[in-house]
Amino acid sequence: MPKLLLFLGCFLLAISVLILNVPQLAQFDWTAVQWMHQHHLNSLNNLAAGLSAAGGMPFVLFLAVLWCLRLAWYKKYSDIVFISTGIIGSIGLAWLLKCLISRPRPPEMYFLVKTYGDSFPSGHSLYAAALGCLAMYVYRRHSKHALICLLASAWILLMGVSRVYAGAHYPSDVLSGWSISFIWITLLYWLMARYPSANK
Known about the structure:
The chain is mostly helical. The chain has helices at residues 2-21, 23-38, 42-54, 57-73, 77-101, 123-138, 145-165, 171-194.
């Protein structure tokens, strides 16, 4: 699984960078945002708003703290270090890249939700992918690992699509958010697996 996620991350990152830098491909970004805007439904609007709140940094940190507290009860300290480092690193990467790239968001007329910061990468998509990947790795020996991976994948996909639907991001922003988390969390997993004594 780590090799697959790393390959997928590199592939999606390459696509997102191409879309960002090639004008002919950038048209896809605009077309997707406009198409989503033209197909808004009240029920989906409410879902997108709910996902926007659930996928923001404050709630992600809250979930991570609850998760770590539960693991602390079972003395899973290496998992706590893995999750904490993964989430904090994801947040740092998201905002560092936003500042460095400074890509404007889609026009405000498309917004369904409040937005903060620049567009590339999508922070919500990056955080969702980070949580999903962390769950896949932390519970890799769980008897229901396949179900956990399925639910995590659905969460990642739903969050990313909702950001485009809400007019807050272009598809390439979402792809970059996913890819950065896939790469970051996988490299962190390999690092901690290689030096397990440093996590005790």
